[in-house]
Amino acid sequence: MMHMTFYWGIKATILFDSWRTDSWTSYLLSLVALFAIAAFYQYMEDRRLRFKFLAVRSKRSPIAAPLLAPASFAVAGSPARLATALLFGVNSAIGYLLMLAVMSFNAGVFIAVVVGLALGYLLFRSGGEEDLVVVDNPCACA
């Protein structure tokens, strides 16, 4: 039976039927893995935003107003635009998988993901440069 409220316990099913925890060792390893994936999500999001910022900056003239710039920063089939779209897809997939893991309603899983996202943000995205790029990520983990 699937839990529909938060619970504490070492027995959890995370994402797949084969990813079950039934001991403290498997539970703690799962929490560490989710923590690392959440921090990696923030790292990948930082890479995507920096790549997009560099691609946009290289296409603009120095006096262009950022709010008046065209929506597309490159030709539709350019490598920079394709790479940005690929990174967005990877980040979205990781974000949704983290969301589904949290939907196991295990409180330890929830805490591991939130702390991983927070620490990842602190390490990779709190440098102040993210204010220069408009964030267009619809994922809740952004």
Describe the structure.
This protein is mainly alpha-helical. The protein has one domain (12-60, 72-132). It contains three helices and two strands, in the order ββααα. It has a two-stranded antiparallel sheet with strand order 1-2. A hairpin with a 6-residue loop joins β1 (12-13) and β2. The mean pLDDT is 82. It is a multi-pass membrane protein. Keywords: Copper, Copper transport, Ion transport, Membrane, Transmembrane, Transmembrane helix, Transport. This is Copper transport protein. Pfam families: Ctr (PF04145).
Question: Key features?
Answer:
two-stranded antiparallel ribbon, mainly alpha, elongated, 142 residues, 2 strands
Summary, kept brief:
With 142 residues, the protein is mainly alpha-helical. The protein has 3 helices and 2 strands, in the order E-E-H-H-H.
Helicity range of the residues? 55-70%
Proportion in β-strands: under 5%
Low-confidence sequence ranges: none
The overall average pLDDT, rounded, is 82
Number of strands: 2
Q: What is the overall number of helices?
A: 3
Order of helices and strands: EEHHH
How many separate domains? 1
Report the structural category: mainly alpha
Radius of gyration computed on alpha carbons: 19 Å
Q: Could you give a short account of the major beta sheet?
A: 2 strands, antiparallel
End-to-end distance: 31 Å
Strand order of the largest sheet: 1-2
What sort of overall outline do the alpha carbons produce when their principal axes are compared? elongated
